[in-house]
Amino acid sequence: MSETDAAVPRDQRPPEDMDSAPETNLDEDDRLRPEFVSAVLDAVEARDAETARALVEPLHPADIADLLELVPDERRAQVAAALGDLVGAEVLSELNDYVRDTVVEALEPEQLAELASALDTDDAVAIIEDLDAEDQQAVLEAMEPEDRAAIETALSYGEETAGRLMQRDLVAVPEHWTVGKTIDYLRETVDLTSDFWEIFVVDATHKPVGTCQLSWVLRCPREIAMTDVMKREQTLIPVDMDQEEVALRFQKYALISAAVVDPSGRLVGMITVDDIVHIIQEEAGEDILRLSGAGDGDINEPVLDSYKARVRWLLSNLLTALLASTVIAHFEGTIEKMVALATLMPIVAGVGGNAGSQTMAVTVRALATNQITASNTWRTILREIRVALLNGASVAIVLGMGVSLVFMNPALGGVIAAAMMTNIVTAGFAGVAVPLIFDRFNVDPAVASSIFVTMITDSMGFLAFLGLATLVGLAG
Prior knowledge:
With 476 residues, the chain is mainly alpha-helical. It is built from 24 helices and 6 strands. Helices cover 64% and strands 6% of the residues. The N terminus is likely disordered.
């Protein structure tokens, strides 16, 4: 221990993990290699917990979480039990939801309560909220009254809201305090949260009136009033705001942290940017997976859950495919007279489908980030139609000329060019209109749009190509 450390009371020193990174003899590239994972599993299988712990102990909590995710499902509880207290609160907070459920099931309520108490409120809630009602109650009863009250309050808010996301550990000071009094408070308060960079200034009713960065406090003379140092303009987050909207505010205003207020405007918690990074990643991945109908898309998700999430969209696609096949059947006679039509018609439908998917992806993202509002909806639709016209013209010219040369039939080239142009423009309109319609009716456009856009582009592609071929008498 250095002389500097000895001069600072133990309860006022920063946590050890903030002083230095944990020492490890493992090379960065060797962590979690198959050989390492196998060595841990072999030690656990041989009931040699000491060796397993020696292997895992140098790892960062996030790496321990990754290790548990790499272990086969049926071995996770056994590995977690062998590692004991190495699977601590930080490891639980880093675990994939499905893997965490497996690990948590192997813990006694008292153990889980102890781990949850060591976490920020938002991380503790993430663990406890997925428990069965009976297990949840047992864990809450094993917690200290103060921690239990904080968790129960957070659980009273809706899922995926700021109330669930916020942490209650923050630093707030009265507006009549000076910088000196604030510094003394920060130094003398033993149970103050150790991770903060912003101080909230509140009035007598505990409503936030301003915010002050920690660096400003440290650089100002002691006699200066906090109201003269703080920034009055701040972004306040309503406790019932959806977490996706919270993430958008953090992105838009480049926030590091933000105060969360209840309906009466009182300060009840704060949200920090590290929580938002997780939400942004989660929401972006969620939208991408919904567009494909893949459910949660988690490789740790139980097989039956993945099956249930995906099969309904496959069956829906089956119905839309039957509709497209009905269009083809209507022109069966035309196709029999000119086999080349059967060869070429998938091209029209396929390229149209890709064009629709492009437009749909852009629109869904714009809706998710609030780039499309009532004031620019029609401008957005017209923009996508103009893009579709340019794309359609380019692809139609290339395809039409190619078909004319290959089949030595300029009329066929003209028909497929016209059909391609029609389908791409239709795809552009459908790709933007379908998500907007779903959004207007409060249906998640990421979930339902792809099936309908695919149905429209397939049906229109076949109808336009075969209909035009019949109209001009190609098969006559």
